[in-house]
């Protein structure tokens, strides 16, 4: 009788035949599962290796900064239509600090190619109309004078009154002499619509103040420069008068002194000048300086012998002629008749420019006539939109 060494002490265990073990189903499943996991692990390792070797251009991930905010974007077509920019899309973006950035981009028109528009060249935002574009100014002993911007932008474009761009009769009315009479200037600004162009006398008073009021109401502005008349010096327009016998340097000094009186104007218009305008040698340096500073020159058309057109064409200076003086007879009804003549002229040639002064009768007649003419489909525009400009 053998001894079972594995049996507990004092106990005897009966010998049993051990049955043959068979593979368990669960064990088989476990083996298969392990093999599957091993295969997946191997596949993942291969995939990771491929990703590490892939070019960085294969996958692009944009992750915004944690504190970034998405600017609010708004589109405003109504603003374009009212500012003569209906050929563009307007996109206004509100930035984090509350400022609004306005972007103009071309918009496709039916039946036409893309409309290319430089937003800067359609005048200022009305809210900024009293403030000059700093890129268009330089300091001088006479104050801040206009210059062309780094991108070629000119005061002629920056401060121009926008117009619709529609076909039809266009008329510009220029009222001069502003700044000479406080009450007359105030009445003109209060009663004349923004479509009328104002010319401030170089020898006027409080010009900076009047400039801001006029620009706030949407007026395009010129500086009215006194020039030597036929009967000078018996008829002396003032201390800044350009005189043909004086040196170009002296006349340019006077011009710059006048230019430094205000900002935000599109050009220069003569006051008198029957003799000076006919002297090509005297006039050429003046027109050249005006052109180089990004301004237009308006000849009031009173001198039949004026050389400004010929000189302006030769040096590519933006230039226009007045077609008629509307208040040669200082009577309201007579002025209204002249304005009707101006409209008939525009019907024949498409455009016309009328010149007047800030007399009470002129202001009253022009205010009435503009309202009536607009009802007849006449568009009154700033004079800058009617100049001959080969630089465009």
TrEMBL record:
UniProtKB keywords: Membrane, Transmembrane, Transmembrane helix
Ranges annotated as spanning the membrane: 24-45
Taxonomy, superkingdom: Bacteria
InterPro entries from the UniProt entry: Divergent_DAC (IPR006837), Glyco_hydro/deAcase_b/a-brl (IPR011330)
Biased composition (Polar residues): 69-91
Annotated coiled-coil segments of the chain: none
Chain spans, region Disordered: 1-22, 51-91
Family matches, as Pfam families: Polysacc_deac_2
PANTHER family in the cross-refs: DIVERGENT POLYSACCHARIDE DEACETYLASE SUPERFAMILY (PTHR30105:SF2), UNCHARACTERIZED YIBQ-RELATED (PTHR30105)
Annotated protein name in UniProt: Divergent polysaccharide deacetylase family protein
Organism: Rhizobium helianthi
């Amino acid at each position: 009788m053998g001894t079972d060494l594995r049996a507990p002490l004092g106990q005897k265990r009966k010998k049993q035949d051990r049955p043959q073990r068979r593979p368990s189903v669960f064990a088989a499943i476990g083996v298969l599962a392990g093999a599957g996991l091993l295969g997946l692990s191997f596949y993942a390792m291969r995939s990771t290796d491929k990703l590490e070797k892939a070019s960085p251009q294969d996958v692009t991930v944009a992750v915004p900064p944690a504190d970034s905010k998405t600017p609010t974007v708004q589109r405003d077509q109504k603003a374009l239509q009212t500012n003569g920019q209906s050929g563009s899309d307007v996109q206004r973006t509100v930035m984090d600090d509350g400022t609004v950035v306005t972007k103009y981009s071309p918009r496709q028109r039916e039946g036409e190619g893309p409309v290319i528009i430089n937003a800067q060249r359609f005048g200022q935002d009305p809210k900024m109309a009293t403030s000059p574009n700093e890129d268009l100014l330089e300091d001088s002993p006479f104050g801040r004078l206009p210059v062309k911007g780094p991108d070629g932008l000119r005061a002629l474009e920056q401060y121009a009154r926008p117009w619709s761009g529609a076909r039809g009769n266009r008329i510009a009315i220029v009222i001069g002499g502003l700044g000479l009479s406080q009450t007359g200037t105030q009445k003109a600004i209060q009663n004349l619509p923004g479509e009328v162009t104002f010319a401030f006398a170089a020898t006027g008073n409080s010009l900076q103040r009047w400039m801001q009021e006029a620009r706030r109401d949407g007026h395009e502005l010129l500086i009215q420069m006194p020039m030597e008349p036929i009967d000078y010096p018996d008829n002396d327009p003032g201390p800044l008068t350009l005189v043909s016998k004086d040196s170009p340097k002296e006349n340019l000094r006077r011009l710059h002194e006048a230019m430094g009186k205000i900002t935000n104007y599109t050009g220069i218009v003569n006051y008198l000048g029957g003799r000076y305008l006919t002297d090509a040698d005297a006039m050429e340096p003046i027109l050249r300086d005006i052109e180089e500073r990004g301004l237009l020159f308006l000849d009031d058309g009173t001198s039949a012998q004026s050389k400004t057109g010929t000189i302006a064409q030769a040096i590519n200076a933006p230039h226009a002629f007045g077609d008629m003086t509307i208040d040669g007879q200082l009577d309201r009804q007579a002025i209204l008749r002249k304005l009707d003549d101006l409209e008939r002229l525009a019907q024949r040639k498409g455009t016309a420019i009328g010149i007047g002064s800030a007399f009470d009768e002129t202001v009253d007649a022009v205010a009435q006539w503009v309202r009536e003419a607009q009802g007849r489909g006449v568009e009154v525009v700033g004079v800058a939109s009617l100049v001959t400009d080969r630089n465009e």
